[in-house]
Design brief:
CATH architecture of the largest domain: Orthogonal Bundle
Largest sheet: 2 strands, antiparallel
CATH class of the largest domain: Mainly Alpha
Number of strands: 2
Number of domains: 2
Strand order of the largest sheet: 1-2
CATH topology of the largest domain: MetI-like fold
Shape: globular
Structural class: mainly alpha
Distance between the termini: 43 Å
Number of helices: 25
CATH superfamily of the largest domain: MetI-like
Length: 561
């Protein structure tokens, strides 16, 4: 075939392979996202011997009486944690955006520290501070940190950065002209807050509330570490599957936990659509003016929040060097000899590192490729819409439900994919699926910022869109690619729930090893492994910032022109 004929086929945007690639990505999501959920739902309708029993398992589960108690516990924890987190994060965001407090970048970085840590780290820190032998146990006034108090505090701390990011973005959209009008009308500051600030951020509050609620409902690590005997849906699934090998009831509980997460997802989608309509491009950024008293209070609050966030890392890090906490506080490196406390030893850490790198790299390629085909290719519209819709599903699926669904799916009779069970490949695939939606959003947001005229010009010149992708789109999207990679790496390094049912002795992950060691009473070694994970995430985040800055100077010069 001549070069001219090849160019003719590629010209006018007809990239012959794009439908095939999009079909492949759609099949990937079908195989590892939709079908596993179908299998877990089907298992909830079967007896132990595989016979179809309809809703009998659901009936038996709810007739036991404990189901309503567990659901009530879970929803109570989620609601209380969400309210506390929203209030504290909103106040912190106001301090950074509506006051003249100094060191804003430093405080912002401190508030985001939990993003670099496993969620269970805050629970471990609280047990060291307020546990039976904790340094500050006297402050509990007879109450126990093991139970709802510890779960709520730990969830509030671990969800704080997620809520803060969403709320601070909403607050920055405040229109300065409205505050000037309120001041000229002699309106008080509190009235201005109720009539201007709060309404302007209502969709940000709705979205952050839904995100926080969903994360609290589906969290497994925190109630496992600090929950004690307080039963919640996530720990109930683990208890049924691992403790009793009752996959039917585990599947039932998974479906029950899936319902509030799915409902929250649809509410969030509705709120986001309303938010797009409400936004205006004529807003004038709000610039605060100095007020000594207010700024002093804001500084004190920001310092307090930052101390708490740093303490959640520093306290377990200190415990990891203690000989025998809390009786012998001499320093040692013995706790880092993981072979003495966990069968996998250091291999679990290297497994996590390997899995995180593979998931980040493969996930970035897959999600960006899919986003580019949806936004820039001329594949059939129905195919692009189908793929786009399927990318939203993982966001509504709790990690523990996904892990159990994958377990049942891979071990189903006759499934050729069963060979993947217990391998590094299935851990990588499950992690990619678990965080697929956010990665896809990052890529599509970046691609939509590029003028479609790039492709139109290439079509008129009879050049292939692949040339535009390699020569124009990829260089311009370098920041988004790097953001996707580091997001997937950090998420994969710290994930617990999505992998808790899928590892084998040879693929034990560091996050799972932390849970197992803490469960066995080896607190200091668990803290040592968690500290190693945090140090790795911090180092990779610094490398990401350095590389991003260096590449941006080369590929993003056009932004300053």
């Amino acid at each position: 075939m001549s070069t001219v004929s090849v160019r003719s086929r590629l010209g006018h945007g007809r990239v012959s392979g794009s439908p095939l690639v999009l079909i492949t990505l759609t099949a990937f999501l079908t195989l590892f996202s939709i079908l596993p959920l179908v299998f877990v739902f089907w298992r909830s309708l079967q007896s132990r011997d595989g016979a179809f029993v309809g809703l009998r398992n659901y009936q038996q589960y709810f007739e036991g009486g404990g189901a309503y108690h567990i659901i009530s516990n879970t929803l109570t924890i989620a609601v209380v944690s969400t309210v506390l987190t929203i209030v504290l994060a909103y106040l912190f965001a106001l301090c950074l955006t509506h006051t003249c407090v100094r060191f804003k970048a430093l405080f912002r970085g401190g508030a985001l520290l939990p993003l670099l840590t496993p969620t269970l780290l805050s629970a471990m820190a609280l047990t060291q501070l307020f546990g039976t032998q904790g340094y500050l146990n006297g402050l509990m006034m007879g109450h126990s940190i093991y139970g709802p108090i510890g779960i709520i505090v730990s969830m509030t701390i671990s969800r704080f950065p997620h809520v803060f990011l969403l709320i601070s973005t909403a607050i920055t959209l405040s229109d300065s002209r409205l505050y000037e009008a309120a001041e000229s009308l002699k309106s008080g500051r509190f009235k201005a807050f109720l009539t201007i600030t709060l309404p302007a951020t209502k969709y940000g509050l709705i979205s952050s509330s839904i995100v926080c609620f969903t994360l609290c409902v589906t969290d497994f690590a925190i109630p496992k570490v600090i929950g004690g005997e307080y039963a919640m849906l996530a720990t109930e699934i683990y208890k049924q599957v691992v403790g009793q090998m009752n996959f039917q009831t585990g599947a039932v509980v998974s479906m029950v936990m899936f319902m509030p997460a799915l409902a929250a997802f649809f509410v969030d989608r509705y709120a986001r659509k309303r938010q797009q309509v409400a936004l205006t491009s004529k807003s004038v950024p709000f610039v605060p003016r100095p007020r000594a008293g207010r700024d002093a209070l804001a500084l004190a609050y920001c310092v307090l929040v930052s101390i708490v966030m740093v303490a959640m890392i520093a306290i377990p890090a200190y415990a990891s060097f203690v000989k025998f906490w809390p009786y012998n506080l001499g320093l040692t490196l013995r706790n880092y000899h993981f072979d003495q406390f966990d069968g996998a030893g250091w291999q679990s850490y290297f497994n996590s590192l390997r899995m995180a790198i593979l998931a980040a790299t493969a996930g970035t390629v897959l999600t960006f490729s899919g986003a580019w085909l949806v936004e820039k290719s001329t594949a059939p519209r129905w195919l692009r819409d189908t793929y786009q819709s399927m990318t939203l599903l993982p966001l509504a699926v709790p990690g523990l439900v996904l892990g159990l669904a994958m377990l049942l799916y891979l071990n189903a009779s006759g499934n050729p994919l069963g060979v993947l069970y217990g391998t590094m490949s299935i851990l990588v695939i499950t992690t990619i699926i678990h965080y697929y939606t956010v990665s896809h959003f990052i890529a599509t947001t970046s691609l939509r910022q590029l003028d479609p005229e790039f492709e139109l010009i290439s079509d008129s010149l009879k050049a292939s869109r692949m040339q535009v992708l390699l020569g124009v789109t990829l260089p311009l999207c370098v920041p988004a690619l790097l953001d996707t990679w580091i997001y997937l790496f950090l998420s994969a390094m710290n994930t617990v729930s999505a992998a808790i049912f899928l590892y084998s002795p040879h693929t034990m992950l560091a996050s799972v090893a932390v849970v197992n060691m803490d469960d066995a009473g080896s607190y200091a070694p668990a803290a040592a492994m968690a500290t190693t994970m945090v140090a790795t995430c911090i180092v990779m985040r610094i490398v990401h910032l350095v590389v991003s800055s260096a590449l941006a100077r080369k590929t993003q010069k056009w932004r300053g022109s």
